[in-house]
Amino acid sequence: MSAMILPPMGWNTWNTFYDKVSEELVLETMDAMIEKGFRELGYRYLILDDCWALKERDAQGQLVADPDKFPHGIKALADAVHAKGMKLGIYSCCGVRTCAGYPGSFDHEYDDARQFAQWGVDYLKYDNCNRPNHISSEILNRRMAMALRSTGREIDLATCQWGTEAVQSWIASTGARTFRSTVDIQDNWFSIESIARSRLERLSWSACGCFDDMDMLVVGLNGLSMNPEVNQGGCTDEEYQTHFALWAMLNAPLILGCDVRKVEGRALEILQNKTLIKINQDPACKAPFKIPVYGNDDAFVLVKLLSDGTYAIGLFNFGDTDANVSVELWDIGLTLSSNLRMSFRDCQTNDIVGSSREHFSAVLPPHGSNVYLCALEECK
Ligand code: GLA
């Protein structure tokens, strides 16, 4: 078993490609991930979302990969992915049909788990559509969790209940690695803001080892997604930066949703920010806490304790105008009598931009943010 369970990092087909998922796309994306340095940064999972299978099971009741999309089958794809040090994810649903109408795993849990294990799958996104009314999501997820465990292969369970049925109260005990807690993301600021706001009141959900999944990233989609449900306007670079900073600070899975073959410029920089990735992948996986900003309901501060004794501090402005966002270090626990001060290293420039015993502030543009790595030091 893995020694340390951190928020997964990878790429998923859904946000950009919708039903146009294929072996060719996955292999090309894998090459791009390696060439552009994503693999070295920890983005290891290539995840097939919905629409990879045929619309009906075969005569033996098994799922069949669509041969037009996957001419060499899933096993060959998994082998190719493993040969490059990457991992393969697949998608199914605890109902009788997936959300897009393909066969679901209801009452086929053990067949499907065995099939995924034989193919060499490493990760299962498990959706929640078309369920029989009389069985709870909890039971259905416990079933698939047991089915996966019974194969003897280590397959991550990434569940997707959109935050229903008080999922946070039971999900960790199923052994799932992640659970979707929100509706589907769209490529616009409104969607990012509403997902983030829904999380700010329940920051402790994302416990170590079972992470609250805020849905896949839309950074780099730039209003060009082929998925009509996701393609809803696009965001500015500032908004994409804030989106990534929030997901990183909140221990959310970092699953790319863009066309990695084409991503470049600012989007590439955002997705490859080493400090934000380090904060997200910190081994202690502490849930952050929030500090309100006096007199400004659209601004807030997030603080996450890191395992090396430092702090990640994020300043956020959800408002539509510039805002001076200030954090009182008193609110984090620093006292004047400590004779300590806190240094602030900007995550984007990597420069130390300030050091203080009392407060720190920055002027942020609309929907903007800044995250700092902060260390305590003796006052001279
Ligand atoms: C649901 C999920 C999405 C995606 C689609 C596929 O809507 O929440 O993330 O997997 O199904 O049909």
Describe this structure in words.
The chain is α/β, with parallel strands linked by helices and 380 residues long. Helices cover 25% and strands 23% of the residues. It has ten helices and 16 strands. Strands 7-6-5-4-3-2-1-8 form an eight-stranded parallel beta sheet. Strand 10 and strand 11 form a beta hairpin. Helix 7 runs parallel beside helix 8 (237-249), helix 8 (237-249) runs parallel beside helix 9 and helix 8 runs parallel beside helix 10. The longest helix is centred in the middle third of the chain and has 14 residues, at 137-150. It is elongated. It starts with 8 loop residues before the first strand and ends with a strand. The protein binds alpha-D-galactopyranose (GLA). Alpha-D-galactopyranose (GLA) is lined by residues 14, 49-50, 98-100, 127, 160, 184. Residues 14, 49-50, 98-100, 127, 160, 184 line the site of alpha-D-galactopyranose.
Output the structural class: alpha/beta
Q: Could you tell me the radius of gyration in angstroms?
A: 21 Å
Order of strands, main sheet, comes to 7-6-5-4-3-2-1-8
Major sheet description? 8 strands, parallel
Number of strands: 16
Report the helical percentage.
25-40%
Provide the residue-averaged pLDDT: 96
Q: What ions, cofactors and ligands are bound?
A: alpha-D-galactopyranose
- Share of β-strand residues: 15-25%
The H-and-E topology, N to C, reads as EHHHEHEHEHEEHEHEHHEEEEEEEE
Number of helices: 10
Query: Shape, please?
Result: elongated
Uncertain ranges: none
